Amino acid sequence: MxxxxxxxxxxxxxxxGALLFILAAGLSLIFGMMDVVNLAHGAFYMLGAYVALSVTxxxxxxxxxxIVAPLALAAFGLIIEPxxxxxxxxxxxxxxxxxxxxxxxIADFIRxxxxxxxxxxxxxxxFPAGLDRSIxxxxxxxxxxxxxxxxxxxxxxxxxxxxxxxxxLGALVRAGVGDAQxxxxxxxxxxxxxxxxxxxxxxxxxxxxxxxxxxxxxQPGMDIDALIYSLIVVVVGxxxxxxxxxxxxxxxxxxxxFGKVLFPQFALALIFAIMALVLLxxxxxxxxxVRIGR
Amino acid sequence: xxxPALARAAIVAVAWLALATFPEWSxxxxxxxxxxxxxxxxxxxxxxxxxxxxxxGYAGLPSLGHAAFFGGGAYAAAIAAxxxxxxxxxxxxxxxxxxxxxLALAVGFLAVRAVGIFFLMLTLALAQxxxxxxxxxxxxxxxxxxxxxxxxxxxxxxxxNAAGNLYLLVCVTFLLVLLLLWRITTSSYGRALVGVxxxxxxxxxxxxxxxxxxxxxFVLAGAIAxxxxxxxxxxxxxxxxxxxxxxxxxxxFVMVLIGGAGTLFGPVLGAAVxxxxxxxxxxxxxxxxVLGIVFILFVVFARQGIAGALRxxxxx
Amino acid sequence: MIEIRELRRDFGGIRALAGVDLRVEAGxxxxxxxxxxxxxxxxxxxxxxxxxxxxxxxRLGGTNLDSLTTxxxxxxxxxxxxxxxxxxxxxxxxxxxxLSITSLGGAYRPLRSPTxxxxxxxxxxxxxxxxxxxGAVPARALSHGERRxxxxxxxxxxxxxxxxxxxxxxxMSPAETQRIAALIxxxxxxxxxxxxxxxMDVVFRLADRLTVLHEGRAxxxxxxxEIRSDRQVHDVYLGKxxxx
Lengths: 294, 316, 244
Hints:
The complex is a heterotrimer of chains A (294), B (316) and C (244). Chain A has one domain: ABC transporter involved in vitamin B12 uptake, BtuC (Orthogonal Bundle), CATH 1.10.3470. In chain A, 72% of the residues lie in helices and 3% in strands. Chain A is built from eleven helices and two strands; from the N terminus they run ααααββααααααα. Chain A is globular, with a radius of gyration of 19 Å. Chain B is an all-alpha fold and 316 residues long. Chain B has a domain at 34-246. Chain B is 76% helix and 3% strand. Chain B is built from 14 helices and four strands. A two-stranded antiparallel ribbon of chain B has the order 1-4. In chain B, strands 2-3 form a two-stranded antiparallel sheet. The radius of gyration of chain B is 19 Å and the shape is globular. The two termini of chain B are 28 Å apart. Chain C has two domains: 1-77 and 160-181 and 188-244, 3-Layer(aba) Sandwich (Rossmann fold), CATH 3.40.50; 87-159, no CATH class. In chain C, strands 6-7-8-3-9-10 form a six-stranded mixed beta sheet, with helices on both faces. Chain C has a four-stranded antiparallel beta sheet with strand order 2-1-4-5, with helices on one face. The interface between B and C is medium-sized, with 27 and 35 residues.
C-alpha cells in the first residue's frame, strides 16, 4: 500500500466512522435513557433512506430530504413509543422484543412498496449537487461527499455535545438515571421524556440513513447491516454515553475499512475480533459506564 | 410408573403414531402430499424452536443468533457428505451436530459473559459473523448461491430420497429430540438451568459454576439446532446463507414466544402457527408483516404464549 | 476456620470496610454487631466474593479465598442465608433444596434425575427447618416465616463448614423469631456460624463470642458478658438499644 492509498483509505475509514457515529448515537441515546436496545434501529435507518429517496425524487433536492427524513422518523418515533413501548414500561426485554417485531414489519413494508419506487430492487440516491465531484488530496482524487460526511458528523457530534452539557435532557442522560421511579421523584414527566428520547433516537437513525444512502445505496438487508454495525460500535465504545459512541465509531470505522482493503475475506472477522477482545478485557466498552458482561 | 404418567405416555404414543402414519390415512385427501410436506417442515422447525426454548424458556438466555447453529449444522452436514463422498446418515447428521456444537462453543464462550439484553445483542452480532463467513467462504459454502444438490441420506440401506421415508426420518428424529429435551428439562441439570434463569446470583452462592452451566446449555441447544439444520438440508436439498441469517433466528424466537417459552410443546405449536402463516396464508397477504404483528401482539398481550394461555384456561 | 486480615472495601470515596481483622475458630458461633452502616452486610458480601475486596486477605480453613469466585468459595464449604430471601420462586420448596444438594456435582449431568438419597436428604433438611409436609408448595406461595426457614434450608442442604447468617430474623413476628432462633441454636456444633443480627436477645442467645463493627472497623471482641460491660461498645451501639 502506497502512502497515497493509505491516506485515501484513512479518509474512507474516517468517513465511515463518521457515519457510524450518527447511527450509533441514536441507539446509545435510547439505551442510556430507557435501558432499551432498539433492535428496530436498523429498520429506522433503512426507512430514513427510503423516505429520503422519495423526497429527493419529489423535490429534486437532497438537502430537503436531509431535513425531512429525520423529522419523519422522529415523528414515527413519537407515535410508536407511546403506542407500543409505554405499555411495557419496566419490562426491558419485552420492549426489545417489540422492536424486533417492529423491524420485521418495517422491512416488509419497504419491500412491498414497489409502487412508491421502493421495493426489493437496489435503488440509488445520487450525490447532491455540488458534492458529486472529487478534489485532489495528496495527489489523488477524493470524493467531496465523503469529506462532507466527516464534517457533517463532526458538527453533529459538537451539537450533541453542547446539548449534552447545556440542556436538562442532557443532564439526565449524563446522570444515566434510566430509572422511571427516580425520574418521577425528580419531578420529570417520564412518559414525555421517554417518548422524546425515542423520537430523537429514531430521528438520528433516519439521519444516518439519508447521509449513507448516496454512498451505500438502498437495498433489502441494509437494515440488518446497519443494526449489526451500530451494535458493534456501542459494544466496543461503551453503551449509553456520547463519548462511547464517538470512541466506538472511531475504532470500528477505520478498522473495517482497512480490513476490507488488507484482507477482504476476513474484514468482518477483524471487527468481530476487536469486539471480542473488548468484551473479554474491558466489559464496559472503551468509554462506557454500563457493564455488559462479567 | 404412576398412573397419570402412564396415561400421558399413552397419549403421546398414540398422537405420535397418528402423526407418523399421516401420509397413509390422509391419502385420499387431495392435498395430502402438500400437507405432508408442510408437516415435515413444521417438525423440522419444531426441533429448531424447541432447542432454542432450552435457552430462552428454561435457562433464561434470550439468544437472537440461534440460526447460526441451524444453518451451521446444515452446511456441516452437506459439506461433510460431499467431501467424504458418502450418503450415510450417520456421517452427515453427525457432522451437522458436531459442526453446530463447535460453533455454539465458540459463540457461547463470549456470549455467556453477558446478561439479559446484552446477551441478546451479542448472540445477534456473533451469529451475524457466522452469516458473513457462510456468505464469503464461497469455496466451502457456495456463497450467496448456496449449496445446492444436497443428497438425501441412507441408513442401513433405507434410502431417504423417497418422500415417505424422509417423512418417517423426520418424525422419528422429532420424537427422539422431544424425549431428550423432556429428559433434560426434568433432570437436576434442567432444574439448575431454571435456577440460573430465576436467580443466577443465588446459584453462584450455592456453589454453581453458572458460566459453565450456561455455556453447556448453549452448546447442547446448538447441537440440537444442528440436527434440525441437517434435516432441513435433506428436506430442501439446499443450504443457503438464509439458513444462518438473522431472519431465521428471529423466526425461531417468534415460534418460541408465540407457542410459549419454558414449555415442551409450546415451541412445537409455535412452529406450526408460524409455518402455517408463511406457507398456507393467501400469498397476497404479506407473511413477514403478519408475523411481526402477531409477534408484537403476543409480547404485549400473551407473553406466556399459546401453551401458557391454554394452561390458564385448563386451570380456570 | 475464618481468618480475615486488614480487609478493606471502598465504594467510591466511602470506606465501607476500613481494615477489618477477624478470627473465628472452627465450631465457634460468632455474632457481628454494629449500628446500621457499620459494614456488616458488606463484610458478608466481600467474604462470599459477591463484592471484590479493595484490599486485605481472607482465609477459610487455611485456604486463601482472595482470588476465588463466589461459587468456588461456596464449594469450599461457605454457605449464606441472605437477609432478603433469595429463593427460586416458581420451584417447589423441595426443588429449591434439591438445587442446593445437587450443586455438589449432580447437576452438571444433563440426563441425571435426583437420586432417591438426594430426595431423602432434601426431605430431611426440610424437616430440620420445620417445613415437613410443605415440600410440594412453590416457594412463592410460602408465608414470610416459611420462606425464611426455606432460606435457611438452602444454606444447610449443602452441608457447609461455615454458615453466614445475615439477619436471620429480619421482618419476623416474635413467634417466628423464636422459632428460627431455636432452629439455629439446635444446629450441629461442628458448624461454624457467623451471625449478623439486630435482635440483641437472639444475639446473646446464639453467640459464643461477639465482634463489634463500627465505621468499617472491628472495635471490640469478647464473650457476650464482656461486650455487655464494654464502655466503648455502649457508647457506639448498645447504649442506644439498652436505653430504648
